[in-house]
Structure formats: C-alpha cells, structure tokens
Design brief:
The structure is a single chain. The protein is an alpha+beta fold. The chain has four domains: 1-308, TIM Barrel (Alpha-Beta Barrel); 437-527, Golgi alpha-mannosidase II (Immunoglobulin-like); 535-612, Immunoglobulins (Immunoglobulin-like, Sandwich); 617-715, Sandwich (Immunoglobulin-like), CATH 2.60.40. 20% of the residues lie in helices and 28% in strands. The strands form 13 sheets. An eight-stranded parallel β-sheet has the order 14-13-12-7-2-1-16-15. The radius of gyration is 25 Å and the shape is globular.
C-alpha cells in the first residue's frame, strides 16, 4: 500500500566495451521472462551509502541523519551504493534488484505528530517523475547514477526493477501540497489545480477499502491522488515509464496498483510493452477472503500486470512465524492456482517494507530460513527482502514500519540463509525448469511437515520442510515423479536434509522409501532432464497488438531458427536461442490465440495462450445513465465487439467491469480500448445469481481516439 512521509504505517557496466552489445541483447531477450529470477528488494536509502556527496543536498537540506537515530530521515543509501554491492548480490544468487522509487521526492522537512522531522526517504512522495531523487543520485537530479547502476547491473547479469507509484504525488497537507513537476516545470498542486490533474476526494477509510469506487478514486493516506483520466496525467506517467526504460529499467513494480484506475493501468503497461520488453507486477494489498479477491485475479489475468501474492505471504507468515498448520498454506496456493491464469508470474515474498520482519514476529532463524526456502522453491517469482540473509531485524514497536527498514550492517557470505538462497537461486535459474515453469503439487503433509513437488515435463524438484522445533518425523507413503534412483539433498545438508531412495512405480507416482525429516530441516531433491523436443514454459507479455515484441521461453528450442505461429500465422523472429525466442506480433484479427513454437526441424512445442489486441490501448471512460434497476449484488458491465471489450462476453470474467455507481443509477468505468478503432458495444446487467439482462436497441458505436484519452456518455436503452 502507499506510504506517506510521516504516516505511522507508511504504506508504502562492469563489462568491457566489446561485451556491451551481448549484454544489451541478453537484457532485451529475457526482460519479459521473470519466472526463473530471484528478486532482491532494497529500500535504497537503507542499503549502502556509496556517494557521500549526496547525503545533504542543498534543495532538500536537513533531511539527512548521519546518526541513524531518526528512522524517518534519509540515512545515506543511494544508487551508487547498490552498484557497489553487485558482486555480493551475484554471490547471493540474486538476478534482479527491486529498488525504491528513484524519482525526485518531496523536498521539505515535515514534522510528525510528535514534532519530529520526517522525509520521503522511502521514495513514495514524488514531486517529479522525470528526475532522479538528489539523495539517490546527485544534486543535479540527473540520470547519471541511475544509468550507471542499470549498465553495471546488466553487465553482472542482474535486472533492475523500478518501484513506480502512479497513484499519487506527495501529501496534500505538507508544504508542497502534492505539487507535481514535469522535468522541473510546475504542473499542478492539490491546492492549485485548474486543469484537474488530481482527484479531490476524501481519504479512504473503513469499509471504503472494499468499495471499488473509493479504492480507485479516493485519496490514500493524504497523498494527492492523480487523475489518470486526465490527458496530461495519462501522457505524463506513460512518458515517465518510457524514460525509465530508456535508461535501462527492465521491469516495474507498481505501487498501490489496487488504488490506481484499473482500466487505465491496462494502457499503462501496454505503453511500456509497445516501447520495449518489460515485466510488470503490482501491489494489490489484500487478505485471504477479501471482497475484491475476484477483481484481483481478473485484473492479473487480463491487464498484463501480475501482482504480489499477499495471500501466500499471509499464509507463509502464519505457518512459519505463528506456527499455524501447513494446511493453511496448501489451501491458499491451490485456490489461487485455480483462479490465476499466470500463476508462475505471481510474485511471492516473506518480508517487505510494509510488515514487521519475520524475526520480529518470531525470533527463530530456522523458521525464517524455512519460510524463505519455501518461497524460493514454491510457485511464483520469489523475493528476498534486503538484510534477511543477514538476519537483520529491529523489534521496536513490534518491528513495524519504519523499524522494518533497517540500515544494512553486514554483508557476510557465510550465513546459512545466504547459502540457501545461493543454492536455490542457482537451481531456479539453471537448467532445471521445474521451479520457474513447473506445476505445483502437494505430496505429503501434516501440521509440521510439508512436501511439495514442482514439475516441468521431465524436470522435477521435490521439496520437504519440517518446521517443528524438536520433533523428527518418519515419512512414509510419499510418492514422487522423480525417476527411480538415490537422491542426495541439493542443499548439501545446510538444513539437515536427508538423502532418499525412489523406487519404480507408475503414472508419475514412484514410491519413496521411508525416511526421517529432522526437526528444523529443509531438503531438496531434483532431477534435470534433457529436452528432446521443444518445451515452452513462459510467454511475456501475455497480450499485445501487432508490432509488439514477445518472448517465449523454455528449453530444447535448438540453436537454429525455427518458426513461431500465432494461431496459424507465422510471426517475424527477432532472436532465437535454445531457451528463449523473441517474435513480433503479426497483423491479425484481435482475439485469444494459441502460440506454437516449432524448432528448425518442424517439431512443435506445447502451445501457450496469447491475446492479440486490436491496436495500442487508449483509456476511455464509458458512462451509461439511468441503467436498469439493480438490487444489491447486481452490477452493470460493458461488453463489445473487440477482445479489449470482451468480445461480447456475458460473464463476470469475460465482460468488462463491474462498472462504478457513485451517482446511481448512472454507472461509469474507465476502460482501455483500441486506438482508432470503430467499436460497437452495449451494457448488460449481471445479477447476483448470474442472470444477464441486456439493454435494448441497436449497438452503441464509438471511434476511439488515436492518442490521449476518450469519453463516452450514453443512456441505457429501454
């Protein structure tokens, strides 16, 4: 969630020149496939002070605390500091760094309720999205430090993920009143906004966090809420993302994705994908059973933006920190796997800058190692929160914000968790594709022991965890897809994992001889196969119009160029390797297609789904007045003639919506529609029991603008 500077819960090229072209090609080819990555999240200010000249810059003087006693001031960490520790991160097994929002932030010293000075050290109080924060770069707010980091990171085989916060600027009650600048030129402020750059609604509170309109259009913790339906804001934010891409950003974590206009965000990611390869995931904060859970997976399935897996995070913390039964975690993962189309793109984590570190909840390093091992081997893209590998924590006030944003004080490479991350990161990013692309199956479970299996064709990884503090468990009746053989623990006994013997069975269920799992143990057994035919495990992005470059990844593609078919149409191949192919979306009718990769000999891989858009996406706000009477649980949806409008779908998941009704019986919704297309559409009511009621009359028609934003206002046809 968002973070304000003073909030109690502040929601928050080393290579030689001859290698540069190779590095750039590698970054380009793989930027959209994050399934095999290990992400390291860094609160930039708290990591390493690599450049002391930016500690107390003139334009924001007084916001630096060299003593590190005021937890809401800058402590000196910067982009140069991250760059200095790339070899440490390489050794850890990290392949991507997620950095704090690097853009220029609030310059003022804002006293908190106790009169203590605070700052936007966390990066979530933007004032200029097109300049780099002086505390992270230089007093010139230029791009040098950022470009140096991305160049060096790419040379080290590490991608850079930028935390981007398009929901808001800075606080509406601080000295800059949310002021927004465009590369130094003033645009607007919350108290000076003739152009409608901001929404001017109250803060979200209470049950409002379950109300779609308030969630998207109200203010979050006093942070000036940007109006993405305004053409200036739309163009500004997309240009800012593309500027970050041009300076080497590989991916984006979207802050408070739940609180930005959902329909607009489709066009935001599409603008980036149109500009170049990228990967997107967003912070959709929720608890298991959240009223907007269905909205979250519909968004992730259709927007091209994955989400942080808060449900698995909650379950992991409950199981490992609070000693809940493993059944909780198993139930959550299985439920999500049935709802999310791109399960392996979900981003999983143990700790973050928004919750107390696990060690502040339960000061048991074994439990932290076990939890992190689960995330590293489990379904989804794993995140390691900076310092966890050093067992960093501060338990003041329970260890919540800001005490979970510690100064990094140690860079030992000998801790058990550092070594476990290295081993599992190597397995995930190596030749065994089960962790990145594989299925997920629970194989054995009781309250304290959990054994699960990941499988991609003939690649298999079997993982066992015993979290009990003192009890050793005998494991019998375990089956696995591992071929019959003896297997030693891939972690080399770092967490006391035993060896196992697998016998011959049938149907992918080979029995494992009885063995014991010691207390506080983690074991990983794996089998890596050689692909005799091409095997596809990933596509990214998952949607795009003609001309967008798309990456298919897997194994066994061969080194000679083959073909890629989108439906039955051959695509232009941009690059080809045995594990990754990039192609350009052909000019074909919009719709959902199977993509088929064939090697140079004509052997086809398994197909994978891709959505071909009609054209680049333009945000259009649709309003229908005096819609048919609705009862509680009934909603109005939009459906229409292109894939962007649901191709006349009539279910919750295929139609566009639900629409919003702050001025009932008038309903509206911001939707991303195809640029320049002559579309037809209608509105429907989907009742709580699924019954569909269409409006009468002819189809509405509208020609979508070729740029900017659009607006449609019609009456329900009776």
């Amino acid at each position: 969630m968002n973070r304000s500077p003073f909030s109690v819960r502040t929601f928050s090229r080393y290579a030689l020149l001859c290698l540069v072209n190779v590095v750039l090609l590698t970054a380009f080819t793989f930027a959209q496939d994050f399934k095999k990555q290990v992400i390291y999240q860094i609160v930039t200010d708290r990591f390493v002070n690599g450049d002391t000249s930016n500690d107390n810059p003139a334009q924001s003087a007084g916001l630096f605390d060299a003593t590190k006693t005021n937890w809401r001031l800058y402590w000196g960490g910067d982009l140069a500091g991250i760059q200095q520790k790339l070899s440490y991160l390489q050794g850890l097994g990290v392949t991507a760094v997620w950095i704090s929002p690097p853009v220029d932030n609030l310059n003022l010293n804002i006293p908190d309720s106790g009169g203590n000075p605070t700052s936007s050290y966390h990066g979530y109080g933007a004032r200029d999205f097109k300049r780099i924060e002086e505390h992270f770069g230089s007093a010139a707010n230029d791009w040098t430090a950022f470009s140096n980091l991305t160049t060096a990171a790419h040379a080290a085989g590490i991608k850079v993920i930028v935390d981007f916060a398009p929901n808001h600027s800075n606080p509406d009650n601080a000295g800059e009143f949310g002021s927004l600048y465009d590369n130094g030129t003033f645009v607007a402020a919350c108290n000076n906004d003739p152009g409608g750059i901001f929404h001017h609604n109250p803060d979200i509170s209470g049950s409002g966090f379950q109300d779609r309109y308030q969630v998207e259009y109200y203010t979050l913790e006093g942070l000036c809420d940007l109006n993405q339906e305004n053409s200036t804001v739309d163009a500004y934010l997309k240009a800012a993302i593309q500027q970050l891409q041009s300076h080497g950003a590989d991916a984006f974590r979207i802050d408070a994705v739940k609180h930005v206009t959902w329909g607009w965000e489709y066009s935001m990611s599409n603008a980036a994908f149109t500009s170049g390869p990228s990967f997107f995931f967003g912070e959709w904060y929720q608890n298991w059973g959240d009223a907007l859970y269905h909205d979250s997976y519909k968004f992730a399935n259709k927007s091209g933006i994955s989400v942080l897996d808060f449900n698995v995070n909650q379950a992991v913390r409950d199981v490992f920190a609070s000693n809940n039964n493993f059944s909780e975690l198993d139930n959550v993962v299985n439920s999500e796997n049935s709802n999310f189309t791109w399960q392996n793109d979900l981003v999983t984590f143990v700790d973050s800058h928004d919750v107390p570190r696990l060690l502040s909840v339960n000061n048991n390093t074994n439990r932290l190692i076990e939890a992190q091992a689960y995330v590293l081997a489990g379904r989804g893209i794993p995140v390691v929160y900076y310092g966890d590998e050093q067992y960093l924590h501060n338990d003041t006030n329970g260890g919540g914000d800001p005490y979970n944003r510690n100064a990094m004080t140690s860079f030992l490479t000998t801790t058990t968790l550092y070594q476990v991350i290295n081993k599992l990161g190597g397995l995930r990013g190596g030749s065994n594709d089960a962790l990145g692309y594989g299925s997920y199956q629970q194989r054995w479970m009781n309250n304290d022991v959990y054994i699960f299996e990941r499988k991609f064709f003939n690649d298999v990884v079997l993982v066992a965890i015993n979290k009990n503090d003192s009890t050793t468990y005998p494991i019998s009746g375990l089956n696995t897809a591992l071929p019959a053989a003896n297997y030693s623990d891939y972690l080399s006994g770092l967490m006391s994992g035993p060896s196992i013997t697998v016998m011959t069975g049938s149907g992918g269920n080979n029995p494992v001889s009885t063995f014991t799992m010691p207390a506080h143990s983690v074991a990983v057994w794996q089998f890596t196969s050689t692909a005799s035919t091409p095997q596809v495990g990933s596509i990214g992005p998952t949607l795009g119009q003609s001309g967008v470059k798309v990456t298919v990844a897997g194994k066994g593609f061969g080194t000679s160029t083959g073909t890629v078919l989108v439906g039955t149409t051959a695509a232009t191949i941009n690059s080809w390797s045995s594990t990754s192919v990039t192609f350009t979306v052909p000019n074909i009718t919009n719709g959902i297609y199977n993509v088929t990769l064939k090697n140079s000999g004509g052997t086809a891989a398994n197909t994978i789904q891709f959505t071909v858009l009609t054209a680049k996406l333009i945000p259009v706000t649709f309003t229908v007045n005096n819609a048919t009477p609705t009862n509680p649980g009934d909603y109005i949806f939009l459906t229409g003639s292109t894939v962007e409008l649901g191709n006349w779908g009539t279910t919750w998941d295929t139609a566009i919506g639900p629409m919003l009704d702050p001025n009932y019986p008038n309903w509206f919704l911001n939707v991303s529609a195809p640029a320049g297309a002559a579309i037809q559409f209608k509105f429907i009511k989907i009742a709580s029991d699924g019954t569909v009621t269409w409006e009468n009359g002819s189809n509405h028609t509208y020609t979508v603008p070729t740029s900017g934003v659009g607006f449609v206002n019609v009456n329900w046809q009776y």
